[in-house]
Write a structure and sequence with these properties.
By secondary structure, the chain is an alpha/beta fold. The protein folds into two domains: 3-227, Spore Coat Polysaccharide Biosynthesis Protein SpsA, Chain A; 231-301. Helix content is 47%, strand content 11%. It has ten helices and seven strands. The protein has a seven-stranded mixed β-sheet with strand order 3-2-1-4-6-5-7, with helices on both faces. Helix 9 (231-262) packs antiparallel against helix 10 (274-301). The longest helix is centred in the C-terminal third of the chain and has 32 residues, at 231-262. The protein is elongated. The protein starts with a strand and ends in a 24-residue tail after the last helix.
Length: 325
């Protein structure tokens, strides 16, 4: 199969029929074999009934329904597991993503050998209250992650099948799938300017809180990617520096006290100096940070997936007999 179109949705009953017809028409005209995987993230408006009707008419249309709303990341994760196409394309169900982009996205993955191609909504039909925070968010994400994408949060993306089968999207990390893919070794990441359409039905399910959550997730994924398997490198380094700073200050205070006493100069009590308390706090915090890194290292070493890595190629070896342990 050429293309799997994965569509997470929540209360988009009005747009599903049109979206399915549009995807079908585009893929047929491009001579692509296809399937659509709808993931109903706990909709309450009858979206699942429409998905069932579409599937009854065309078995290439498939559906997954959650018992409640778990979020877009959970929907994408299950959609990725179900997808069978050589190229997996994600898009939102609100018709703001243009299915006409599918053939070119497919070509970029297959012929240009991109692991992942992210859409860039260069011209957006959104109010300034959404576009300005989005630009700031994307600029920050580029600087922190080193991935030169203009629109991390664009729902229209294309992946090699092996990419989606070897990454895990959790929490609200759907915004950072390119980062997760890069961590897994899929570094050939491209970008394509795509058409952003006005919403035809319903209202947006996301508010300004997504930008707050987005920045918090950015901090999380940056920490995990750099120090998730080596927490001692962060906490141990910070702890050691703070402890050494406090120790040096304490030694200086003590040496100063002995020097003054040795020269029969009246010396104030060490505890009267504010530097004493600075040194004490620094050594205590340094010790705590070091122990945090040590405990994190123990947890990391005992993790069940500590020896799971992505194997790229094999020569004269049976992949089924390979062990990660």
């Amino acid at each position: 199969m050429d293309v799997s179109v994965v569509v997470p949705l929540y209360n988009e009953v009005e747009s599903l029929q049109k979206l399915a017809d549009w995807v079908s028409k585009v893929c047929e005209e491009a001579n692509l074999t296809w399937e659509i995987v709808f993931i109903d993230d706990g909709s309450t408006d009858g979206s699942w009934d429409i998905i069932q009707q579409l599937s009854d008419k065309d078995k290439r249309i498939k559906g997954i329904k959650f018992r409640r709303n778990y979020g877009k990341s959970a929907a994408l994760h299950h959609g990725f597991q179900a997808a069978k196409g050589n190229v997996v394309i994600t898009m939102d169900a609100d018709l703001q993503d243009n299915p006409d982009e599918i053939p070119e996205l497919y070509t970029m993955v297959i012929e240009k050998n991109y692991d992942l191609v992210s859409g860039w909504k260069k011209k957006r039909h959104d109010p300034i209250g959404k576009t300005l925070p989005s630009k700031f968010f994307n600029r920050t994400a580029r600087a922190v992650t080193g991935i030169k994408l203009h629109d991390f949060n664009c729902g229209l993306k294309a992946y090699k099948n092996e990419v989606v089968k070897n990454i895990e999207v959790y929490g609200e990390m759907h915004r950072y799938i390119p980062v997760i893919a890069k961590q897994a070794g899929f570094t050939n990441i491209g970008e394509k300017i795509v058409l952003h359409r006005k919403r035809e039905f319903g209202t947006s399910k996301f508010g300004l809180e997504r930008y707050i959550n987005g920045f918090l997730d950015l901090i999380s994924i940056t920490f995990i990617s750099r120090f998730g398997k080596k927490p001692m490198h962060l906490f141990g380094t910070l702890g050691s520096l703070m402890f050494v700073f406090g120790f040096v200050v304490a030694v200086w205070l003590g040496a100063r006290k002995f020097y003054l006493m040795g020269h029969h100069i009246k010396a104030p009590l060490v505890t009267q100096s504010p530097y004493f308390y600075m040194a004490l706090v620094a050594m205590i915090l340094g010790t705590q940070l070091f122990l945090t890194g040590f405990l994190g290292e123990l947890i990391s070493r005992s993790s069940t997936d500590r020896n799971i890595y992505q194997v790229d190629k094999l020569v004269n070896l049976d992949a089924q007999k390979m062990s990660h342990k």
